[in-house]
Amino acid sequence: MPLRAPSIRRRLLLHLLLLLVPALADFPDRYSSPRPGASAGAGLGNAPAQEYLDPTYPTPRPPPSAPSCVVPVLSYSFANTYGAPPATAAYAPPAGCPAPWSLVVLSFSAAITGDQYDRVAAVWLDGAELLRTTTAEPTPDGIRWTVRKDVTRHSALLRDPPGGVLSVMLENLVNDQYTGVYNVSVSLEFHGVPAYLADAGSSSSAGAVDSNPPTPTLPESYFQPADLILPISEATGNSIGFWFRIQNSSDSRSKLVSVPSSTYRAVLEVFVSPHSNDEFWYSNPPDIYIRENNLTTGRGNAAYREVVVSVDHHFAGSFVPFPVIYTGGINPLFWQPMAALGAFNLPTYDVELTPFLGLLVDGKAHEIALSVVDGIAEWLVDANLHLWLDPASSSVSAALDRYRTPRLSITRRYSTRLLDGSFKIRAKRKSRFSGWVKSSFGNFTTEVETELKATSVVEFTHQGRNKTVRLQAEQETEITVRSSETGKEVGKVETEAKFPLWLEMVTEDGGNGTYVMRANLTHSLSVETGAEAEGLFEREARLADEQAAAGWMLVRDHAVVNGSAATTQAYRYSDGAGRVERAIDTLDGAVLSDNVTESYSALGVAASTAACCRGRRCHGIVAAKCSDVAAM
Ligand SMILES: *[C@@H]1O[C@H](CO)[C@@H](O)[C@H](O)[C@H]1NC(C)=O
Ligand SMILES: *[C@@H]1O[C@H](CO)[C@@H](O)[C@H](O)[C@H]1NC(C)=O
Ligand SMILES: *[C@@H]1O[C@H](CO)[C@@H](O)[C@H](O)[C@H]1NC(C)=O
Ligand SMILES: *[C@@H]1O[C@H](CO)[C@@H](O)[C@H](O)[C@H]1NC(C)=O
Ligand SMILES: *[C@@H]1O[C@H](CO)[C@@H](O)[C@H](O)[C@H]1NC(C)=O
Ligand SMILES: *[C@@H]1O[C@H](CO)[C@@H](O)[C@H](O)[C@H]1NC(C)=O
Ligand SMILES: *[C@@H]1O[C@H](CO)[C@@H](O)[C@H](O)[C@H]1NC(C)=O
Ligand SMILES: *[C@@H]1O[C@H](CO)[C@@H](O)[C@H](O)[C@H]1NC(C)=O
Ligand SMILES: *[C@@H]1O[C@H](CO)[C@@H](O)[C@H](O)[C@H]1NC(C)=O
User: Fold this and answer.
1) Which of 503, 506, 552 has most ligand 4 atoms within 8 Å of its beta carbon, as the pocket-test mutant?
2) Can the keyword Signal be found in this entry's annotation (predicted)?
3) What CA–CA distance (Å, rounded) separates 465 from 24?
């Protein structure tokens, strides 16, 4: 997805193709794709707009008989919006459905007809991001889709927005050739807490204060949405968008924030999307290969990336981002009418910052910074700092325990012979931080232990005409909260995330200035979470989301002129309350089958809702299933 002048990139690619038609150094790539065989000419067809599917993160069901309200916020046609400020609209919480809410869903709907590239977009409320999304490429008959995202964890902002301005950025270019205008509407759907759940909760409120047991326990509020959310985003976002635009590995972007001195828990929620030369970072060869073959592609710097969070220049956490494939990526026919994993709702990554509160709660401004190891232009990155405040005291005391910067160990094995080459990278980082916070709930020590492992292989064979990409990224995080006095464990969250990707592609000269590209792809997103809190709940959740795609395309310039593709998807989610499975088969733009199986255990629902913080308000933790991929 080029954020800068795609026309130049189109010329670049053409130039490259003349040099060496079938070399794959510049692939995967992105293409515009009026569906082969679809009627030509914008809007001439009589067929209704086709509905595109986003099967990645189904939103949870609201509890039965909860009052609900829908607030339409913004409606905008994104035509020639390249370089323009974000579209804005006023937002206020619904009078008819006051907080607290059991579930809040953000709904982003788009419709478009004609010819257009995929684009990146984001929704912010007062500079704090709520959704990162990418768009689907239209057909002449038109397409539409809706992304629904659970934003309950952003209740503090939605309840009490400091400015009440919702912004949507979507940079689009419209000309004679790329005619598609994205019509977008954003609304928010609020579900209240039904009386039967509100009552269930109040009888068992917080541990330490009421019951005074020998060891204090974590309060329920610890697992509910944060009390305050501070955006870590571009200060001049009103004119250029609130994301930081990271250009290289030494480009660290930061924001100074003052954290209330009553903060007893802090979690940073990070949004990222790579573009331009790093859109396909997991398949980039090292620069030596590009140089030795006199290639002109900017897609280099090899195939490892890691997003790093730091607090006052202390490394505080990191993750390998899930490789999201946008709808024009690899072979756009793969993604009609089902988007790739996460393309409509990009995963976000949580970094637990509670051990660092000792640095933050002194009432002064501190720097939270974001950077990308080995990144090249460009990465759109920002974050929200979620803070939980002590209701009974205006200041906590806290300290970070002994701190050592964890080392990234990385080995690279490269071999090249003209256009053939093999590039292997192994990366590993282990970190362990702990810190204590004494609030009115007690003195608790939080220890965060993370282990990140990634293996990346990019291989070119057959004079560079065949390319194989394998990525295996794995991250395990364990957050343990103990009573600082007795050492007894009072809460624990374990998360294990895995992102395997395998891609095989072959190009051949198609004659007459065209080429044929065949590709096979499998990728998956798997996240397992276990959470328990003494006296409150114990729960496990598992998500396994997989896609496999195979097909070919005939390409002239950057346009797909013929081709065929089949994609299958299997989504499986289970937790104490039930399981959801969805299996979808698509072929050449049509859905062949879409099977959904859901089962809920009545006992499970009752137990999880009663034990787990009244309704869905413990989302931050339990819904680690969904969009919060990395460290919870
Ligand atoms: C987008 O909105 C414009 C203006 O309301 C309308 O004319 C056009 O038909 C819409 N396009 C689609 C694809 O819905
Ligand atoms: C990295 O990007 C920043 C911001 O664009 C720029 O100022 C800096 O010169 C770049 N550094 C390198 C080594 O390219
Ligand atoms: C790259 O260019 C240099 C200088 O023009 C030339 O000597 C070399 O043979 C070229 N290498 C390849 C692989 O084409
Ligand atoms: C390249 O791919 C083609 C088509 O899949 C296959 O027949 C050929 O054996 C491959 N060549 C190499 C060197 O991998
Ligand atoms: C909290 O516990 C830590 C670790 O045991 C201890 O060093 C610290 O002094 C305690 N803080 C307070 C304010 O009691
Ligand atoms: C080659 O492509 C051009 C359009 O780019 C077309 O007009 C011409 O008929 C094609 N020739 C052959 C032999 O397919
Ligand atoms: C894709 O997989 C099929 C079936 O396993 C195989 O026949 C084909 O050669 C593969 N294509 C590529 C480009 O690797
Ligand atoms: C597309 O390719 C298929 C299979 O090779 C062929 O039968 C068909 O005629 C092609 N369509 C066009 C428009 O070239
Ligand atoms: C959906 O169910 C039908 C009937 O049982 C089966 O034939 C089909 O293969 C299933 N589709 C998927 C994608 O599992």
Assistant:
1) 506
2) yes
3) 6
What pTM, to 2 d.p., does this model score? 0.91
User: How distant, in Å, are the alpha carbons of 154, 229, 272, 445, 620 from that of 387?
Assistant: 11, 6, 21, 17, 12
Quickly list H helices, 306-458: 357-360
Read off the pLDDT band of 35 (50, 70, 90): low
**How confident is the model at residue 556, as a pLDDT?**
87
Residue 279 has pLDDT above 50, yes or no: yes
Reported as a single tens digit per residue, the pLDDT across 232-260 is 999 999 999 999 999 999 999 999 999 99
Task: Give the start-to-end residue ranges of the domains of the chain.
Answer: 8-631
| Distance in angstroms (rounded) separating the CA atoms of residues 429 and 408 | 5
Q: Give residue 559's Cα distance to chain centre.
A: 28
Phi-psi region of 130 (alpha: psi -120 to 50; beta: other; left: phi over 0): alpha
Atom of ligand 4 nearest to the CA of 462: 13
Which ligand 3 atom is nearest residue 418's CA? 13
Task: Name the residue of 466, 507, 515, 516 to mutate for ligand 4: max ligand atoms within 8 A of Cβ.
Answer: 466
pLDDT at residue 564, as a whole number: 96
Cβ proximity of 441 and 207 under 8 Å:
yes
- Under the banding of pLDDT at 50, 70 and 90, the label for residue 36 is low
Grouping H, G, I as helix, E, B as strand and the rest as coil, residue 608 is: helix
Q: What is the distance between the terminal CA atoms of the chain, rounded to a whole angstrom?
A: 29
